[in-house]
Design goal:
- This protein has helices spanning 18-28, 33-39, 41-45, 66-90, 120-127, 146-160, 185-193, 253-272, 289-299, 307-316, 323-332, and strands at 2-10, 14-17, 50-53, 106-111, 135-140, 165-173, 196-205, 219-228, 236-241, 244-249, 281-284, 341-348, 352-360.
- Helix 4 crosses helix 5 (120-127) and helix 10 packs across helix 11 (323-332).
- The chain has a nine-stranded mixed sheet with strand order 5-4-6-7-1-8-13-12-11, sandwiched between helices. A two-stranded antiparallel sheet has the order 2-3. Strands 9-10 form a two-stranded antiparallel ribbon.
- It has two domains: 2-213, Thiolase/Chalcone synthase (Peroxisomal Thiolase, Chain A, domain 1), CATH 3.40.47; 219-360, Thiolase/Chalcone synthase (Peroxisomal Thiolase, Chain A, domain 1, 3-Layer(aba) Sandwich), CATH 3.40.47.10.
- With 361 residues, it is an alpha+beta fold.
Length: 361
């Protein structure tokens, strides 16, 4: 058992509206006007109002090498990860007093939008007074499911070390992967959906002496479940090219929600000896509006059970693995009555599904 005790965000400074993105697409993509006009409704159907980016909009008008993109990734990943960590460990919405850096026993760092060796958490350690004997667990290549998988691995580690504390950081700079010469529809869909997001979550074991630092409603993680469908690696991911990452994004994803995800969830509920009606709400990664609608329809649940997933998608877009932590923060800001039950859920490359069962205290 472990507790989700605080969430912090690192918000990129450049905000762009969906209407402006549409205009940029018309300017940037070398497609006939008729073809562009045929594709533009994708941006309206996404129901995203605005997104945050680490680069200015003029950056997208030029070609960039993989090296240039990755240098920007390393620079901004460090800056905004530190911002999210500082916010998380000092967030008075969830903590009575600042949580000491030296009390963090393990860091899990999640990303799929850039590479670094040593991984970014090593750079983070040089910028803040973390202990040198801290456990490091970088996770790469998990895409949108990475945030939930990171929480699951933290839960596993805290089950073995119940007096310890873990910081899970998710940093996704999707804008730096943009490919203006990739004319495949999957790239247009990615352009309509993805933004940049950085977030951090503080977890404590059930015997941590620092549980007294917390306040308000918080969820305890009771069980997790992972599922990876064999022979489905072409559903989502990256093609790595000389210019960087080209997005793989199958149109079948909403359909897979109604099959792979639904079956995984129902099997998980059986293990928990719960019925769907006993789940009060879902902390769902909003992969896109079609994904959220597929979740809603596959279980025939009320939109209110997914309300903050809709809100985060509209205000921030899909920020890959970081998005679900933004949704988690919104739910944690509410005074959730004790014993309410919820599921954290996300889908990712593999094709994979990750679930966490929470009970609120």
């Amino acid at each position: 058992m472990s507790y989700l005790c605080s969430v912090g965000l690192g918000i990129p400074k450049h905000t762009i509206t969906q209407e402006r993105v549409k205009t940029l697409v018309e300017e940037i993509f070398p497609l006939p006007k008729k073809e562009i006009e045929r594709l533009l409704p994708v941006f309206d159907h996404a129901e995203i109002f605005e997104r945050q980016l680490v680069v200015e909009e003029d950056w997208f008008k030029n070609d960039h090498t993989f090296e240039e993109r990755n240098q920007l990734y390393q620079e901004h990943a460090l800056t905004y990860s530190l911002q999210a960590i500082d916010h998380c460990l000092t967030n008075r919405e969830f903590l009575e007093k600042d949580f000491p850096y030296k009390a963090i026993d393990a860091i899990i760092y999640i990303s799929s939008t850039g590479i670094s060796t040593p991984s970014i958490e090593a750079y983070i350690m040089n910028e803040r007074p973390f202990r040198e004997d801290i456990i490091r667990m970088p996770l790469w290549g998990l895409g949108c499911a990475g945030g939930v998988m990171g929480l699951a691995r933290a839960f596993d580690w805290l089950t073995a070390h119940p007096d310890k504390n873990v910081l899970v950081i998710s940093c996704e700079l999707c804008s730096l992967t943009f490919q203006k010469n990739d004319l495949k529809k999957s790239n247009l869909i990615g352009t309509a959906l993805f933004g940049d997001g950085i977030s951090a979550v503080l977890l404590m074991g059930n015997q941590s002496p620092y549980l007294t630092y917390t306040k308000g409603s918080k969820p305890k993680v009771l069980q997790t479940s992972s599922y990876t469908k064999k022979d489905s690696i072409d559903v989502m991911g990256w093609n790595v090219t000389d210019s960087g990452f080209e997005v793989i994004f199958s149109k079948e994803i909403p359909t897979l929600v109604n099959t792979i995800w639904k079956n995984h969830l129902l099997d998980f509920l059986k293990i928990l000896t719960l019925k769907e009606q006993e789940i009060d709400f879902y902390i769902a990664h909003p992969g896109g509006m079609k994904v959220l609608l597929a979740i809603k329809e596959s279980l025939n649940i009320a939109s209110s059970k997914l309300k903050y997933s809709y809100e985060i998608l509209a205000k921030h877009g899909n920020m890959s693995s970081a998005t679900v932590f933004y949704v988690l923060q919104k739910w944690m800001k509410q005074e959730i009555p004790k014993q309410k039950k919820s599921i954290i859920t996300a889908l990712g490359p593999g094709f994979s599904s990750e679930l966490l069962f929470l009970e609120w205290i």
